[in-house]
Amino acid sequence: MLAGYNQEEFRTDNLFGYISKFANDELFVLDAGLNVESQTNSGTAAEWALQSYFGRFNYNYEGKYLLEANLRYDGSSRFAPENRWGLFPSFSAGWRMSEESFMQDLDVINNLKIRASWGKIGNNAIGNYRYLSLYNFNRNYVFDNSVIPGVAVGNMANQDIMWETTTTTDFGLDIGILKNMVELSGDYFIKRTEDILITVPIPYLIGDLGAPIQNVGTVENRGWELSMTHRNRIKDINYSINFNISHVENKVIKYSDVDAISGGFILREGLPVWSLYGYNVLGIFQDQDEVDGHAFQNPMTGPGDLKFEDQLT
């Protein structure tokens, strides 16, 4: 058994100063600069903390039956106090069939293991203070025909954000034959990420505000993986050959009512993550008459350009 406690704290402070035009290259202090109007200074600070409690339990019975259980309880300063903590368990079990008495007469197979695991982990990688409304400085306002420096709220807050979680289920089989000269391993897995922390687009009528982060997404990966390793020794030469093949299907199970589009990619329910997104191309314009008879492209469209499908008709 194992029990532990972990505490992480991070803080950074930055101070910047600038002035131009010095009398010579030997001067390095701000007050020695000749261009007083160019003198500027700035400073920033940021901090975060992570507190964790964790434990592990292992059980091994005669090298045949294997069991492991893990538990984590993590608290992150990147979430509001009421959503700060997350509980993340995991379990795994294995059965070494090759150690059973009914397998001892099989000389070809010297290792046979069936295993299964299930586990959940959390993600808080969203940057600092995203559940708070932050102020932007150096915002100018006009009062009585004078420009007055001030501050303004720079982003939309969301105190309901919480841990993003990923749950992985795996079933596996390991086989060693001919004194482990050949080792085979196969896995089938399901990886489901829920409450994904995403910056959801907001309407332009909101104004000059940063969009809030929300727990709005669910993505699932299903797949399998096979691997083979061959090891041998010929005289004084050791060699090994490895082969691996895998297949994964990715799908957005849940997302916001508004699609997220970035360049030529889109996030939409039912499609793989960041699927290609763009116009449907029907072919290439062969002559000007074909261009004139098609839906409007742009003033520069001509023979040799791509013919985009008109989906409005």
Model description:
The chain has 313 residues and is mainly beta. Helices cover 2% and strands 62% of the residues. The strands form 4 sheets. It has a 9-stranded antiparallel beta sheet, with no helix packed on it. It has a 3-stranded antiparallel beta sheet with strand order 12-13-14, with no helix packed on it. A hairpin with a 2-residue loop joins β6 (135-143) and β7. The longest helix is centred in the last third of the chain and has 5 residues, at 288-292. The termini are far apart. The model has no long low-confidence stretch (mean pLDDT 90).
Topology:
Layout: E1 2-22, E2 33-61, E3 65-76, E4 85-96, E5 109-123, E6 135-143, E7 146-153, E8 164-177, E9 182-199, E10 213-234, E11 237-254, E12 260-262, E13 265-267, E14 275-276, E15 281-284, H1 288-292, E16 306-308
Antiparallel strand pairs: 1-2, 2-3, 3-4, 4-5, 5-8, 6-7, 8-9, 9-10, 10-11, 12-13, 13-14, 15-16
Brief sketch in words of this structure:
The protein is mostly beta strands and 313 residues long. It has one helix and 16 strands.
Keywords:
single chain; 313 residues; 9-stranded antiparallel sheet; mainly beta; extended; 3-stranded antiparallel sheet; 1 helix
What ranges have pLDDT less than 50 throughout 5 or more consecutive residues?
Answer: none
Helix content: under 10%
Distance between the termini: 68 Å
Give me the Rg, rounded: 30 Å
Sequence of strands across the biggest β-sheet: 1-2-3-4-5-8-9-10-11
**General form:** extended
Strand percent estimate: over 45%
Structural class by helix and strand composition: mainly beta
Quaternary organization: single chain
Tally of DSSP helical segments: 1
Most strands sheet: 9 strands, antiparallel
Instruction: Give the ordered list of helices and strands.
Output: EEEEEEEEEEEEEEEHE
Mean pLDDT: 90
